[in-house]
Design goal:
This protein is α/β, with parallel strands linked by helices and about 425 residues long. The protein is built from 12 helices and 19 strands. The strands form 4 sheets. Strands 1, 2, 3, 4, 5, 16, 17, 18 and 19 form a 9-stranded mixed sheet that branches. It has a 5-stranded parallel sheet with strand order 9-10-13-14-15, sandwiched between helices. Strands 6-7-8 form a 3-stranded parallel sheet, with helices on both faces. The protein starts with a strand and ends with a strand.
Length: about 425
């Protein structure tokens, strides 16, 4: 493999910050230090002047739509969007057709990720067969196939007894169950957050309690079983409060938040634009403040995009008929830098080594920038200003809520297994 040398950046990892160059060969870091270029040359020299060099980002929550809905996002274009966003690994959600409940589907998704070669695609497994909520998926088979995260994302597991059994089976296998917190009986027909805005617009509301009841239930199931639980896309102030209290008790719980839930409120639906329809829905400004506070104090461990592409024609329908979901991979870093009142170190932690640990890939992603470590790295300019143009995004879909928005922070280079897959903000393949 060719040698890559990253010159002139500020190195930021879990050990702290320092300036220096990084040399990479055969997929690993071979040298770290100031002005390595004086005697060390590479086939690929990457300029990191004014940039941060960090461990690669890991996204715990991405919808790649393949197999079954390739018209919205095949794994290739989703992987390209991920790499351009600085992600060296993504956890692919299981709500495909067929769903991720057999070893053959898991291997197909993983193989498509290897074929694309732009980021590591980590297939999640279903908690229940076909995400139907009635029968547990074959955990042992899927775990043997390398699956670490299990979820029925898009659906919450409604049956508490089934969820208890899922946790009890998961414990000895060392896997992580990730819950989509939604009591479905409370959200039938809902279009947006239940509150003053939905009343004014005359739209069916999605109450915060629909999320909070399941968060409450599953915290108690974690207390009962002692088995870890990860909460997907928290969106309400009360959910954050309950997770904070559970962590203070020492319960083994982790959580994530999506950029749209700390940047956009339900008021975005005033124009009835389906691009702002998402599950869980955009909440109030008070909820946004709570999500930000949860990220700042570590209650919420990770920033995860919930990247959910949809073919354009499916979003060009009345709001109540449109599917929920929005793009997020290429804008996550910039939205975090632009919106969060957090040190850059903490933002990178929430994008990199913290989610890497939850995803079970901390042996190769989110690693310190040290000699001998795997070379999965992100180089970004935290001050670069740019404007989001949907047609210029790598995703096959265009449903970004950030269209036309001026943001700060841009990925310049992404290194996967020692190979520069993004150079000067352009994918190399």
């Amino acid at each position: 493999m060719s040698r890559v040398v990253i010159r002139g950046g500020m190195l930021l990892d879990q050990t702290g910050e320092r300036t220096g160059d990084v040399a990479i060969e055969s997929g690993r870091i071979i040298a770290v230090g100031e002005k390595l270029g004086d005697g060390l040359h590479g086939d690929t020299a990457l300029d990191a002047t004014g940039c941060v060099v960090s461990p690669g980002f890991v996204d715990l929550h991405v919808h790649l739509r393949e197999p079954g809905k390739e018209e919205a996002e095949p794994i290739e274009t989703g992987s390209r969007a991920a790499a351009l966003g600085g992600f060296t690994a993504v956890v692919a959600m299981p709500n495909t057709d067929p769903a991720h409940d057999t070893g053959s589907v898991i291997e197909f998704v993983r193989a498509q990720g290897r074929k694309a070669g732009l980021c590591e695609v980590l297939p999640s497994g279903c908690i229940t067969v076909d995400r139907a909520g009635t029968q547990l998926a074959p955990f042992a088979e899927l775990a043997a196939a390398g699956v670490h995260v299990f979820t029925d994302d898009g659906n919450g597991v409604q049956d508490p007894q089934l969820m208890r059994r899922a946790l009890e089976y998961a414990g000895p296998l060392g896997i992580v169950l990730a819950q989509h917190c939604e009591v479905a009986a409370l959200t039938k027909g809902a279009v947006m957050h239940e509150g003053a805005c939905c009343s004014r617009l005359g739209l069916p509301g999605w109450p915060a309690i629909a999320e909070e009841l399941m968060v409450m239930r599953d915290i108690e199931l974690v207390r009962l079983t002692g088995v870890p639980m990860h909460f997907l896309h928290l969106s309400t102030a009360r959910s954050v409060e309950m997770v904070r209290a559970a962590k203070a008790e020492g319960l083994n719980i982790t959580a994530e938040a999506a950029p749209h839930h700390f940047t956009l409120s339900d008021e975005q639906l005033n124009g009835y634009d389906p691009v702002f329809k998402v599950n869980p829905p955009l909440r109030t400004r008070a909820d946004i403040d709570a999500i930000k506070a949860g990220l700042a104090d570590g209650t919420i461990d990770a920033i995860a995009t919930d990247h959910a592409p949809h073919a354009p024609h499916t979003k060009e329908v009345p709001l109540d008929e449109a599917p929920p979901g929005m793009l997020g991979l290429e804008t996550a870093l910039a939205l975090s830098i632009s919106e969060l009142d957090m040190p850059l170190f903490d933002i990178v932690a929430a994008l990199s080594w913290k989610p890497a640990a939850i995803a079970g890939v901390a042996d190769r992603h989110g690693r310190p920038i040290e000699v001998g470590e795997p070379a999965n790295l992100t180089v970004f300019d935290p001050t670069q200003k740019w404007t989001v143009v949907p047609a210029q995004l790598a995703s096959k879909s265009r449903n970004t809520p950030s269209a036309g928005r001026a943001l700060t922070g841009k990925v310049r280079h992404t290194i996967l297994n020692g190979v520069a897959v993004v150079v000067n903000s352009a994918a190399t393949k």
